[in-house]
Automatic annotation (TrEMBL):
Transmembrane segments: none annotated. Keywords: Activator, DNA-binding, Transcription, Transcription regulation. The keyword DNA-binding applies. SUPFAM superfamilies: Dimeric alpha+beta barrel (SSF54909), Winged helix' DNA-binding domain (SSF46785). Gene3D superfamilies: 3.30.70.920, Winged helix-like DNA-binding domain superfamily/Winged helix DNA-binding domain. Residues 1-62 form the HTH asnC-type domain. InterPro entries: ArsR-like_HTH, AsnC-type_HTH_dom, Dimeric_a/b-barrel, Tscrpt_reg_AsnC-like, Tscrpt_reg_AsnC/Lrp_C, Tscrpt_reg_HTH_AsnC-type_CS, WH-like_DNA-bd_sf, WH_DNA-bd_sf. This is Lrp/AsnC family transcriptional regulator.
């Protein structure tokens, strides 16, 4: 990747619906080489896809909670079982394995605290090997360049 590829990616991150002509102008190459570079970036996996960013609040998912999860077993099978199960919970929009005093950090989006409590009690707490959770409710989002 060179500086032009980086420019292309930055422009597409800002507006993936930009015309090829405008994109080529902004990054300083002609249209055909720009298209070829994008295809190469896609083929090599630098660009994984294109998506529409939505407003979660307008979609009825304005409540955000971060959940620290500690599991009782950190051997490979337990981690794989937990990972597979957490992927099936649609309210969990992000899940990160952590090097910390807990094992996973989840970002959970729901309509409100009542719905979150149900998700925590019936879905997250029921995940394999969960021994402890701690919830941090978001009061205000200050920086979020995209959605989940």
């Amino acid at each position: 990747m060179d500086h032009i590829d980086h420019k292309i990616i930055r422009e597409l991150q800002q507006n993936a619906r930009i015309t090829m002509t405008e994109l080529a102008d902004r990054v300083g190459v002609s249209k055909t080489p720009c298209i070829n570079r994008i295809r190469k970036l896609e083929t090599e996996g630098y660009i994984r896809g294109y998506t529409a960013l939505t407003d979660p609040t307008k979609m009825g998912l304005g409540h955000i909670a971060f959940v620290q999860v500690t599991i009782s077993d950190t051997r490979s099978k337990a981690l794989n079982d937990f990972n597979a199960a957490v992927r099936k919970i649609p309210e969990v929009t992000q899940c990160h394995m952590m090097a910390a005093g807990f094992d996973y950090l989840l970002k959970v989006r729901t309509r409100n605290m009542t719905e979150y409590r149900t998700v925590l009690g019936e879905k997250i707490s029921a995940l394999p090997y969960v021994s402890h959770t701690s919830t941090f409710a978001v009061m205000e989002t200050v920086v979020d360049p995209g959605t989940d």
